[in-house]
Amino acid sequence: MRDLFARYAGADLPLFVVGVLTSILGRVASLAPPLVLGVAIDATFNDDVAYTLPFVPAEFLPTTQAAEVWVSVGIIVAALAASVVLTWTNGAALSLFSNRIQHRIRVDSYEAMQRLDMAFFDDKQTGQVLAILNDDVRNLRMFLGTTVSSALQLVATVIGIAVILFSLNWQLALVTLVFVPALGVFTLWFMRSIRPRYRALRASVGDLNTRLENNLSGMEVIKTANAEAHETDRIHESSWQYYLRTWAVAKLEYLYQPSMDLLAGLAFAATFLIGGLWLVGAAPEPLSGTLRVGEFVTFLFMTQRFVDPLSGVGRIVNSYENARASAERVVGLVAQPVTVTDREDAIVRDRLEGAVEYDDVTFSYLPDRPVIRDFSFAAEPGDTVAFVGPTGAGKSTAAKLLLRLYDVDSGEVHVDGVDVRDLSLDSLRSNIGYVSQDVFLFDGTVAENVRYGSFDATDEELEDAVRLAEAHEFVVDLPDGYDTRVGERGVKLSGGQRQRLAIARAMLQDPAILVLDEATSAVDTETEALIQRGLARLTADRTTLVIAHRLSTVKTADLILVVDDGRIVERGTHEELLAVGGRYAALWGGQTEGSVGSFLGGE
Predict the structure, then answer these.
(1) What is the dihedral of CA 558, 437, 529, 453, to 10 degrees?
(2) Would you say 388 and 554 are in contact if contact means Cβ atoms under 8 Å apart?
(3) Would residue 289 be called left, alpha or beta, if left means φ above 0 and alpha means ψ between -120 and 50 degrees?
(4) DSSP state of 379
(5) H or E stretch including 360?
(6) Percent of the chain with pLDDT over 70
(7) Over the stretch 166-204, which tens digit does the pLDDT of each residue have?
(8) φ, ψ (nearest 5 deg) of residue 251
(9) Alpha-carbon distance 264 to 87, whole Å?
């Protein structure tokens, strides 16, 4: 918590200081009315008692009873008005401060998340990350915006009341404040007990969000698999775990809050009992001296002002522990180790030529389980290299190593003779156009999705790219043409339409290297033939890596690599591989005869 405050509070620290000062001054101003009321009562109804106010010279005070009443009323009204103004200023300042802090933490957390390795996203559920970026960051804002103010007001109130009460009657003040140590000990126990429960609660929020996010995204699968009952049971289980953790926190809160109310109430009752007995008779043993009515009234009012904030200690502690758990999760996200980063002396190049070489590359997602083994090949600028092979052979993984979505375990991947780990990520990725088999479109317009990554492209350039991808005809038939919103993940479009827009996006980028991972798998043969003509123009002067399902689309490739179990088992041109009569020839024969063998597939 302290680390986050130190990192983000600097720019808006004046707002925080204003919030703190007005919070304290507002609480001090609220203590003036009961003090003035007690003084006025004693001075008005006791001729031998002078009208005195702390910190006010006697020559500035009235000398007649009527004037004393008017001055007392004026001070009370002024104090109430000042309290209102100060409270508003406090709320506005801390609200601005906390919301700005929330904004910066959320943006920085997201930016840090973007830098994380793809391995992080392979392991982390989307709902868990969303819970951190939304719920946990919001908890920090609420803590800084309201809880800090409440805590400061509590401290100012307790100190202010203690000073006033001790100045009036130190013996009765001891009676009023005797329960404060017990409140402190009880609060310390509560904080230590509830901390692990809040951690578990925050984790369960992420789990529940993950389950809900997954189910909403996969609703079509749920319905087509007739799995509604199964998913309802799983949501029930996740929600039940969240309920149990919420109840674990609530049980402790319900014990703590009433207990705090009881101790604070006992302080008020003890003050009323001892002070009342003192007024109607002699001072109870071992107390001594006198107690005036006005002092007693001030004590009762002050004790009530003392009771209310103390009874709110539970809410302050709850908010603090909740924010503490959230801060741990935010810091944990930002502190995730990142391995795929720019080196200090990273090479920066605006435009690459496109020569690609894999030199004895090995890579594994899990220890000792490589998915790419001894992978080697070379492509000159403008060459087309095709990967074919069964599902799970490692074809897509091999292509992702070129973009440094992952770093190799051993061996090297070169572009233009430079290890990709020595190039800046911006230089590398801005020169590679990537079309995944799992096309992702954002919830925006067609034009926005095609322009993604080429944000400055003109309308003419945009339309040319869409035409090359054979998508212009269906786009202009949409309700709003290029301004039609495609829905979340492009749900309003067919799979083939989404793929064509993804190809158009890569074409608009005009990269030196193009990676096509099953880029036409969701289109029919006729549309694929049209797209291939456009791709032929696009790939004519750039290096292209193609992961293909239909071998007819890669038979003109300069090099075809047959991949199985992470290894290159055959390599050559279409004619060379057919002449060998190996796996590729068998696969080609199976496809041309209209049947697809078990060897065929995409990763």
Answers:
(1) -90
(2) yes
(3) left
(4) E
(5) strand 356-366
(6) 93
(7) 888 888 888 888 877 887 788 778 778 887 887 788 778
(8) -60, -40
(9) 24
pLDDT digits over 470-523, tens only? 889 899 999 999 999 988 777 788 878 888 888 888 888 888 999 988 877 666
Q: Say if domain 350-431+560-603 classifies as CATH 3.40.50.300.
A: yes
Flag whether the pTM goes above 0.70: no
Rounded Cα distance between 461 and 500, Å, is 16
The one-letter amino acid code at 318 reads: N
Mean pLDDT within 60-85: 84
Computed over every residue of the chain, the mean pLDDT equals 83
CB 343 within 8 A of CB 422: yes
Contacts of 428 (CB under 8 A, 6+ apart): 352, 403, 404, 415, 420
Contact 534, 468 (CB under 8 A): yes
CA distances from 194 to 140, 170, 199 (A): 17, 36, 9
Give residue-wise pLDDT tens across range 343-391. 889 999 988 999 999 999 999 988 888 999 999 999 999 899 999 988 8
Where in the chain are all domains bearing CATH 3.40.50.300? 350-431+560-603
Q: How far apart are CA 101 and CA 320, in angstroms?
A: 16
HSE-up (13 A, CA, CB side) for residue 515: 22
CA dist 484 and 481 (Å) reads 6
Segments of the chain assigned to CATH 1.20.1560.10: 2-332
* Fold observed for domain 2-332: ABC transporter transmembrane region fold (1.20.1560)
3-state SS string for 63-93? CCHHHHHHHHHHHHHHHHHHHHHHHHHHHHH
Please state, in angstroms and rounded to a whole number, the distance separating the CA atoms of residues 519 and 506: 11
Lowest mean pLDDT among 50-64, 133-147, 151-165, 246-260: 50-64
- Cis peptide leading into 181, omega within 30 of 0? no
Task: Return the structure tokens found at 522.
Answer: 């969701």
Return the residue matching tokens 């409440």: 150
